[in-house]
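Appendix B.2, paired examples.
Example (i):
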Amino acid sequence: MSEICVISGNANQELAQKICACLDTPLAEVLCGRFSEGEIRIQIVENVRGKDLFIVQPTCPPTNDNLMELLILIDAARRASAKRITAVVPFYGYARQDRKDQPRVPITAKLVANLMTAAGVDRLLCMDLHASQIQGFFDIPVDHLYAINTLSEYFEQMNIKNLVVVSPDVGGIRMARAYAKRLGAGLAIIDKRRNSPEETEVMNILGKVKGKNAVLVDDLVATGGSLVEAVHALKEVGVDKVYAAVSHGVLSGSAVEKLNACKDLEELIMTDSIPLSKAKRVSKIKQLTVAPLLAEAIKRIHNEQSISCLFEVKN
């Protein structure tokens, strides 16, 4: 793997270091700072000419800064004559606006795809997109990984009895069914009404959940309002214990305070696709690393091997 090179911006340096440890290769040095007026200043210190370059940079909050860092890193790598540039974006920001569901709204997921392609990226490696069809917004190869095996292994080790997997909405049924199959559990769905982009109201719970231990599964948690409301609704219908598993912990606003104050939630398990600040490291939140998964995908892409085995849900 002498021609492989991994660099990172400021978005998630810790994850990039873990990936490099799995690959047994050093993280290449990059100057990623700011000019006096706030503009982003990038310089790839090491020589990347002719190398297979992987840029680890989730576009998580602060989304605009991290997205611009990614675009500038791609441009710098292209102008430095890297052989191939793969953007490793574990969390894809601006993904929630993926269609025109109201008049005069943008499709930001497509806009970001256009920006990355125009900057010069050759390939995208991402994980648990908000909507799988976002892959079609790119005219370059996209490898879409899932965190289900990493999260499911944690629950298997806990050996929770009488388990039911709960989807927080109709759109998450496919993901919830995959978790239920992997864990050998039942399946339930929360029917909810969305009052605003950040506020929902639980209407019904479809499925047998009374007297069981529930695992709420979703792709991300932002403000935590919908998650806390779903937890309370499950407890009201007789669920014994409620856990939550999400791929991306955005945890914006007062999310940590809401989750910490939710006595009905046993634990929230998430991946390290988004870094967890010290202020957010509370006992109720458990973070699992996806570095081995991403490192294996990077290794297989570099060696021109199939990565389809990484998409499979282990039984």
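Example (ii):
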Amino acid sequence: MYSRDMKTLCLVLVAASFSLLPLGCKKQPPITLSAQAAPPAVFPGEPVTATATAGSLSTKKNNSVVYSWSGTGVTGNGTTATAATDSLTPGSYTVKAEVKEGKKGKEGLKPGQTADATASFMVKEFEPPTISCSASPTTIKPGDTSTITATGASPQNRPLTYSYSAASGSVNGSGTTATFNSTGASTGSVDITCSVSDDKTHTATSTATVTIVAPPPPPQPHAQALCTLSFDTDKTRPTRVNNEAKACLDEVALDLQKQADAKVVIVGESDAKEKAKTEKEAKYAAKHKHAKVVDAAALRAVNAKAYLVEEKGIDASRVTVASGTEDGQKVETYLVPAGANFSYDVQGTMPVDESTVKAEARKPLSGRHHHN
């Protein structure tokens, strides 16, 4: 055991940092401290833990060790501390640790009984979100709609808000889907912009394209051949509409009633003998003012029209009469839908002048009974 004088001398020499002490003096090295922050880089809101490691601490039983911590948002207890980063802006930060030893209440009063250390960590800027945008279908007709789908992602899982805009037409929706309405937009390509933003005001955009294609024009309507009326059974009245012809015209009337915007063209025909007779009469009439010309083809057509108008109640303006060039004692009927061009579809007919060709009055032959 040291004498009082030797102990005093040792303390004085240690305080003076003598490297060589008298025999019997034990030198207590100064304490050391190191610090480390983990993880070394974080995003705002992620915690950082700092650890302090002291060295050359005294082993005396009555030795007391005290740690303290400082730094922005740093709170510590003992050898560890935590840095709260919620309110920290991106940048570099330092955590400082200090250790003291000695008798309780007198820690760090003597030389070599204190040490400090620092550790650094980085607060990183939040990464912006990403977004992709698609449309389904990508090709639509004017007035149709397309579903817009946005897929957004935040590298740090920040909450996301979506919005949409269109170069023309309109787009409505929230969340990851919206509906593009092409009403009012011209044909061609239309860009729809999908936007996403996080709660840190970072944004990203992506574009989907919808092509508006005009529908093909409706097919051109054409004249449709209906039934044919035969006039070759009544040799006495070969231009008269008989019961068989009426049945055909009844069907024609039904077709006109079903298609209110359609018309009908009645084309009368005559055989070679009748044509020759008409031609002969026409030559004679050219020299004789009051001579009568009978055009069997035209007469058959106007008689058929008279039946439709007078018996079936069809508006006369919906029925046109003409004569054709085919050989036969007959009448052909054609339904002409709105927009159809009869002259193009059925060629070789001539309009009948209804001011000169009048329908025949329907009256039976004298002295005979007829069922037609």
